[in-house]
Write a structure and sequence with these properties.
Order of helices and strands: HHHHHH
Distance between the termini: 50 Å
Radius of gyration: 15 Å
């Protein structure tokens, strides 16, 4: 029988030892949101929250109930822009990063 590891456990360990990986996840989540791939973006953001702040601390920082935050970042979640801004703001602060948007003209 092959030994397997939990994906979520692997993410937590990688984020703890590799800050660039955590910043990359945040960047990827933001890029996916901007490219209308919202379900995947929410799931990546959820994994990042679990690996860093945790939902209880995120609730304190954003002044939103923990259960609501869990629902927002689920596959079927539907957070509004104010809630997304609060979540991204908390994660930016936690990771010490600034997000910048650079527009690239789409090729026809």
């Amino acid at each position: 029988m092959a030994l397997t590891r939990s994906f979520k456990h692997t993410i937590v360990e990688r984020v703890e030892r590799d800050p660039a990986f955590a910043r990359g996840l945040l960047d990827e989540a933001a890029t996916l949101f901007l490219n209308s791939e919202t379900e995947t973006a929410r799931l990546i953001l959820r994994d990042l929250v679990n690996a860093t702040l945790g939902f209880e601390q995120l609730a304190v920082v954003t002044d939103k109930p923990s259960k609501s935050l869990h629902r927002m970042l689920s596959a079927k979640g539907n957070p509004n822009m104010d809630n997304l801004a609060a979540i991204f703001g908390a994660m930016r602060q936690q990771l010490g990063v600034v997000l910048e948007v650079h527009a690239v003209k789409a090729q026809a």
